[in-house]
Specification:
By secondary structure, this protein is an alpha+beta fold. The protein folds into 4 domains: 141 residues, Response regulator (Rossmann fold, 3-Layer(aba) Sandwich); 147 residues, GAF domain (Beta-Lactamase); 88 residues, PAS domain (Beta-Lactamase); 50 residues, no CATH class. α5 runs antiparallel to α6 and α6 runs antiparallel to α9. The radius of gyration is 51 Å and the shape is rod-shaped.
């Protein structure tokens, strides 16, 4: 009949010692091995058959197994092969204890996964050295595996942070990964607003989907573990939640028991954005190693939350800016420092007859319709540049290009085509009116004086000037009275015309004018 026996260490101080499982159908062999190992403080498990040994190994996860080769129910090679093929027991080192010394048996043992061999009759010192060495090796492997898992978890969290900026989705992935690696049965992240109140709770139970809830009891933050973590700004472990006053039983978790661990998600001494808490049904499950890992995760989660908040703010500002730019009648083009287009608004699409979706990421110099702007961009490397540009369709734009440090360049263009057309019409009308005035003035003034009066120089028209003037008077009243009786009227008119012509020539040659009194 197979037996399962557990022998405790002789001293209470040895309760934390490594565990050795002895699988042997011979009671005397088990007694010899167990007595020698128990004297060194090892905790002993015994099985009198191969199947019983496999069951014990799966149940207790011993640190090492001493396995007899020749057993009636199943031989040691088969037992070893079964242990090494089981995920639960494959990392347990196995020493095969046998009187068989042929090389073929050693080869077979190696093939099924045996780690060492101990030949009977064995030497006690050799037994202890082999057991101690393999246990140390197993512990090193376990620590290495745990470290690998920790690094893998941190890597997974980093990838979740980098690829996802939706806060709920990102927090759901992080809490699920953290819960799985630490072996917790429940995990939750509570996000806090600027007043320290819970604004969002992300909950993950083992085997269930992630839950999101905005309606959260504030009691947890007032008198529970969450509030304690925020006030003390450090992580902590609750060994038994049923005995710790910091654990608040919520209505949906009245039967909850076991242990808990939590860390604050802090940006500094006085700023906490949330708390991360995990649970396990086993009392005393969480260790200081778990806490150290959770604190590292907490730092990453805090950064992720800040980035998500920042992304939300930037997205909102970009949406507002996009709305403003879309409604603007000015063409706006934004590029990076290499002139690569990052923004091309609706007005720019209309002016340049192009689609923003096809231009984003292109260089200004790569777009034929935008090459007219290249000289301005080149000059704007030093300082802002503004000038009018004429497009192929005849449209006239007033373009202003400014460099923006750490961003690139912003080009703002106003359509001044209609303004320039109106100015041209105004100038043409002024030119015509000026010709009419000039023709009228020319009857009484010299050409140079007319040009001076009509010039754009404000000297004569806009201010009064003191000038010396010579005034000539011609009194022909007596001449006309005496000449009418002596000459014919036609002759008198000709004489007067000659007189006035000479007088006009004299006045006009001296930049003067003639007034009829």
């Amino acid at each position: 009949m197979r037996t399962l026996t557990v022998l405790e260490p002789a001293n209470a101080t040895e309760t934390a010692s490594s565990t050795v499982l002895i699988i042997d159908d011979n009671a005397e062999n088990r007694l010899l091995l167990s007595s020698q190992l128990r004297m060194e403080g090892y905790r002993i498990l015994q099985a009198s058959g191969g199947y019983a040994g496999i069951e014990l190994a799966q149940l207790h996860d011993p640190d090492i197994i001493l396995l007899d080769v020749m057993m009636p129910d199943v031989n040691g090679f088969e037992v070893c092969q079964e242990l090494k093929s089981d995920r639960r027991t494959q990392r347990i080192p196995v020493i095969m204890v046998t009187a068989l010394r042929d090389v073929q048996y050693r080869i077979k043992g190696i093939e099924v996964g045996a780690d060492e061999f101990l030949h009977r009759p064995h030497v006690r010192e050799e037994l202890l050295v082999r057991v101690r060495t393999l246990i140390q090796l197993k512990h090193a492997r376990v620590e290495l595996e745990e470290e690998r898992n920790r690094l893998a978890l941190l890597g997974d969290i980093s990838r979740s942070i980098s690829k996802e900026l939706n806060l709920d989705k990102m927090m759901g992935e992080i809490i699920a990964q953290t819960q799985a690696v630490l072996g917790a049965t429940k995990g939750n992240i509570m996000l806090l607003d600027e007043n320290g109140r819970v604004s969002r709770k992300i909950l993950k139970r083992a085997g269930a989907p992630v839950e999101f809830n905005s309606q959260v009891s504030q009691e947890v933050m007032r008198s529970g573990l969450g509030g304690w973590l925020v006030r003390h700004n450090r992580g902590d472990i609750i060994r038994d939640i049923s005995q710790d006053p910091r654990w608040v039983m919520l209505p949906d978790d009245q039967s909850e028991s076991g242990s808990a661990i939590g860390v604050p998600l802090s940006r500094g001494a006085n700023s906490t954005v949330g708390v991360l808490v995990l649970n396990h049904p086993e009392v005393g499950y969480f260790t200081t190693e778990h806490l150290a890992l959770l604190e590292t995760i907490g730092a990453q989660v805090t950064t992720a939350i800040e980035n998500a908040y920042l992304f939300t703010d930037v997205s909102e500002e970009r949406r507002k800016l996009g709305t403003i730019l879309a409604q603007s009648t000015d063409a706006i083009i934004i590029t990076d420092e290499e002139w690569r287009i990052s923004l091309f608004n609706k007005a720019a699409e209309t002016f340049f007859r192009a689609q923003a979706s096809k231009l984003t990421g292109c260089l200004i110099t790569e777009v034929p319709a935008l090459k007219v702007l290249t000289p301005l961009f080149a000059e704007a490397r030093r300082n802002s540049e503004s000038r009018e540009v004429v497009l192929d369709n005849g449209a006239i734009l007033y373009a202003s290009i400014s460099p923006i440090p750490a961003v690139g360049y912003v080009a703002v263009m106003q359509d001044v085509t209609e303004l320039r057309r109106m100015e041209a019409l105004k100038l043409e009308q002024e030119r015509k009116e000026k010709q009419v005035v000039k023709a009228t003035f020319s009857r009484y003034m010299g050409e140079r004086l007319v040009e001076h009066v009509l010039s754009t120089d404000p000297g004569l028209m806009a201010r009064r000037e003191r000038r010396n003037a010579v005034v000539m008077f011609a009194d022909i009243r007596n001449w006309t009275g005496g000449m009418i009786a002596k000459v014919e009227p036609d002759v008198a008119i000709n004489q007067l015309n000659e007189f006035f012509t000479q007088m006009m020539d004299i006045a006009l040659s001296n930049d003067g004018t003639v007034f009829e009194l």
